[in-house]
Amino acid sequence: NVSVVLFTSDLRLHDHPPLRAALQGSRQVVPLFVRDRAVTGAGFAVPNRLAFLADCLRDLDAGLRERGGRLVVRSGDVVEEVCRVAAEADADEVHLAADASAYAQRREARLRRALEAEGVRLHVHDTVTSAVDPGAVAPASSDHFAVFTPYFGHWSRRGLREVLGAPRKVAVPDGVGSEDLPTRRGLAGLSPDLAAGGETEGRGRLTAWLRSGVAAYEDRHDDLAGDATSRLSPHLHFGTLSPVELVHRARAAGGPGAEAFVRQVAWRDFHRQVLAARPEAASADYRTKHDRWRTERTAGEDIEAWREGRTGYPVVDAAMRQLRREGWMHNRGRLLAASFLTKTLYVDWRVGARHFLDLLVDGDVANNQLNWQWMAGTGTDSRPNRVLNPVTQAKRYDPEGAYVRRWVPELAEVAGPAVHEPWKLRKPDDPAPDYPDPLIELSDGLARFRRARERD
Ligand code: FAD
Q: Which residues form a coiled coil (predicted)?
């Protein structure tokens, strides 16, 4: 008999429960990826992620070919394509990874109905896209955790399944047609320093990180210039790395750095279980409602200055320019850029979240929308009125100013931490003549924020 394995956010051969189950139960397997019309139509398929995806699909295909198989790529409605491929291959089973978003849940339900009508069974596998799946741990009084610390306690105590090796051989039936694999060529608007995708790349990065990066993670993860985080986020997003394997291997590395790193990976599962339980949180305020946000219509110029990295606050501008250049931003930069937009400029978090999703190679509905909500004070944060001061934060997390000088060339000649307050340098021999004045006084932003919060 024949099985179809539908790859979605799990573009790997190692530690892949759906592929393992398909190979155990069937003589032949069709590894399938569908370029899903609904995802493209929703504006989610942006150049940076399409490029990374193309790398992932090519690497997956290469890995399958080494094992005697190949990847089948189709475009269109995902449910129609899966049914069509199942019919062409005369398959009696389809295997799929469970996923957290509302879209993934709808896709699963539609697939189940359509396949059942054809007499084909759908198997949905847990612990593929999360280490601990949504709903696997829950508090007594609710369907999900809204506070991270107790969640993390349960998450940590939960046993993980064993890691599965990559298959040695994958036999794919003849006669199932495939489109050409996508490439990066022809994609306009890519970030020039975008990372490379693919399982091979992701595994290499993980091994290097566990050997020489993770030990210092606890001390250095907030060091903006040190760039001392794993940069594994796009690999977790596309599933070129398995979260279960990642946690096992980090725990095996041991030490306070690895523990702090695993805790951060648990934040990913935390947000996924919030989104799975409250799918509307992708666009609506999760907890505290705010109606007075400024928007594109009322704050268009401020928003454009923020997007382009010319707010006049160097650390915010550095972060926004890193995003454009690399399609990635340091977590501390994301926090500062989000606090500045939502609290200092009082702009709707959805405007910022959309811009991030347009560029981030790791752009992810759960992590992006819920982190934005966290910083905007509408989400799960227990201190919703916290405002990050970009000057004090810059002095703490970029004490020598090296991060700012790297990304804001207008300030490259300013030595030391003075780079964080260029307005203090304004004199006739100004070393930063091209750099803008602050868009707003921080105290004015804070006062507006407090007034609005009192009225909301
Ligand atoms: P590391 O510090 O090495 O952490 C390891 C992994 O843990 C990450 O790859 C990620 O999967 C997970 N992780 C770390 N921090 C968080 C967090 N705060 N929430 C959830 N998971 C976390 N992350 C995304 O993957 N996609 C997004 O679209 C995204 N948008 C964000 C938007 C804002 C406003 C903020 C404040 C954070 C956002 N994050 C997002 C979370 C975090 O900034 C990134 O995961 C992290 O910077 C990625 O770099 P890294 O892989 O080097 O992280």
A: none
